[in-house]
Specification:
By secondary structure, the chain is of the alpha/beta class. It has a single domain, classed as NAD(P)-binding Rossmann-like Domain (Rossmann fold). Helices cover 43% and strands 16% of the residues. It has seven helices and seven strands. The chain has a seven-stranded parallel beta sheet with strand order 3-2-1-4-5-6-7, sandwiched between helices. β1, α1 and β2 form a beta-alpha-beta unit. α1 packs across α7. The radius of gyration is 17 Å and the shape is globular. It comes from Azospirillum argentinense.
């Protein structure tokens, strides 16, 4: 087998970009989708493929996957990052807002997974890592559409893991807490047991581990990277 190949969606900045840089440093060939154009610039810097487009567009994702397969003929890792969905008071969210949240935080994963899974099954291996949120199971009123959609993503992840584990195709979620790609406030910092914001590079390191052979027996999991903010039952 030649070089391993990773696709990163919404990878132009923040945690997605950090994951792309870390995977490139670990020897992966990199393909990045970003709506801002920053993904193309990052991919060029990393010697990879960049596509400007949206993970809410099946056509844009298809373009990314097609170009990746044309160039390298395989996909070993898919990292699904996301943009930002609507934030309002719970009952102020309209039907349109909820639909938008599902698009941004849930269907962004489903669309990419539909395209990439047949490739991974055919090559008898692959890993999918979804950057979710620490508030997926203990929701915060600050992030209502994110929390609800990503609770659904956790269920989807378990269903996917059950179905494709025997094909050696794994799926896991990373649950970041307060990360330095967000504006920092002292109140939030003090609410974290470690009393600091996490670094995008720490999320990227967790993504890189889940993409590595060392994580080959981990699937269907949601892994908190939040400085102790949330606690497992």
């Amino acid at each position: 087998m030649g070089d391993k190949v990773a696709i990163i969606t919404a990878g132009g900045s923040g945690m997605g970009a950090a994951a792309a840089r870390r995977l490139a440093a670990d020897g992966f060939k990199i393909a990045v989708l970003s709506s801002s154009g920053k993904g193309e610039a990052l991919a060029e810097e990393l010697g990879g493929i960049g596509v400007t487009g949206s993970n809410q567009s099946a056509e844009d994702l298809e373009r990314l996957v097609s170009r990746t397969m044309e160039r390298w003929g395989r996909i070993d890792a898919l990292v699904n990052s996301a943009g930002h969905g609507p934030r309002k008071g719970l009952l102020e969210l309209t039907d349109e807002d909820w639909h938008k949240g599902i698009e941004v935080y849930f269907l962004n994963v489903v669309r990419a997974v539909r395209l990439v899974t047949p490739v991974m099954v055919a090559q008898k291996g692959g890993t999918i890592i979804n950057i979710s949120t620490a508030w997926a199971f203990e929701p915060s009123p600050m992030f209502p559409t994110s929390a609800v959609a990503r609770a659904g993503l956790a269920s989807f992840t378990k269903l996917f893991a059950d179905q494709y584990a025997a094909d050696n195709v794994r799926m896991n979620n990373v649950l970041p807490g307060w990360i330095d790609s967000l504006p920092a406030t002292e109140e939030r910092r003090q609410g974290v047991p470690m009393a600091r914001y996490g670094k995008s590079e720490e999320i990227a390191a967790t993504v890189a581990f889940l993409a590595s052979d060392g994580a080959g027996y981990i699937t269907g999991q949601s892994i908190r990277v939040d400085g102790g903010l949330m606690r497992s039952v």
